[in-house]
Amino acid sequence: MTVIADKDPAADFAPRTVQLPGYPVWSGPFTHLAAERDRLAGLRWQSFDARPVGATLGAEISGVDLAREQPDAVIAEVRRALHEYKVLFFRDQPLTPQQQVAFARRFGELEVHPFIPSNTSCPELVRFEKSAQVSGFENAWHHDVTWRKQPSMGAVLHAISVPAIGGDTLFADMYAAYDVLDAETRARIETLDAVHDFTRAFGHALNDEQREKMRAEHPAVRHPVVCTHAVTGRKHLYVNRVFADHIHGLDLDESRALIDRLCRTADAPEHQVRLHWEPHTVAFWDNRAVQHYAASDYWPQVRIMERASIIGPRPSR
């Protein structure tokens, strides 16, 4: 056997990603994450403790009881932490529906979802109750309700009943997803709009009369493919396969290929953080800065969650 190795084959490469020959797959250090990872590690807070759990997103927050009405200063710090970490995790928060709504409302007006019933005393809470008879179809990367003219800026999700194994939710950093793109791709997509349509996810459940009525209330909308976050001023990708139907001005095949390519940036584990739910865990995510994916690996067990969504401004460049 001939051995020619006298050093690590990666020693001749500068720290960067390289494309695997013949495939649209890249390998190597995600160097664009380093500055944000180090910046987040240095943050300190007055009202709570925060433990980062992902490279550039996700922090477990302790020292705050969400069931109690918090002072404005605490809410302001939670808001700032949301924008810094993109998604916050709170453990052991046995909230009533009213308490969950009251907490979420501190951050803005709440939406009422027209296609998913609340099934509680609070219409602002969407209830996801999955079982052997009701399947979970949330296992595709997406921002919530991008088919609205003013999609939600954030969401507060409370775990009521969860399986011991499975049913995790993954979050992907869409700032990092934009940052990893090459200059040519960024230039190409900078002025493009995607058309978002509720019928892609919810149209199959409606008859013709219902579809016509809901279409009048919720026409298809155009949002930039690349948005500038209204608070942080950072650019992020804003397309998903669930609601984005096509790119305005491109034919369908070219649109779908481009959307799919951009959405694949969320697939990199380096851009992700994963939450294993426990009863009364609460996740609060920035619906612009992250996409999420609810793993559907727990059937036929029961998984019950309730979500309050906060209306945001219209996405813009």
Question: Secondary structure elements and their pairing?
Answer:
Elements (H helix, E strand, L loop, with lengths): L17 E2 L6 E2 L6 H8 L7 E4 L6 E4 L9 H14 L1 E4 L6 H9 L19 E6 L21 E10 L7 E5 H6 L3 H7 L3 E4 L2 H4 L5 H10 L3 E4 L1 E3 L6 E3 L6 E4 L4 H12 L8 E4 L6 E5 L3 E5 L8 E9 L6
Parallel strand pairs: 4-5
Antiparallel strand pairs: 1-2, 3-4, 5-15, 6-17, 7-15, 7-17, 8-14, 8-16, 9-10, 9-13, 11-12
How would you describe this structure to a colleague?
The chain has a single domain, classed as Clavaminate synthase-like (Double-stranded beta-helix, 4-Layer Sandwich), CATH 3.60.130.10. It has a seven-stranded mixed beta sheet, with helices on one face. A three-stranded antiparallel beta sheet has the order 14-8-16. Strands 10-9-13 form a three-stranded antiparallel beta sheet. Strand 4, helix 2 and strand 5 form a beta-alpha-beta unit. The chain is α+β, with helices and mostly antiparallel strands and 317 residues long. The model has no long low-confidence stretch (mean pLDDT 93). The chain contains eight helices and 17 strands.
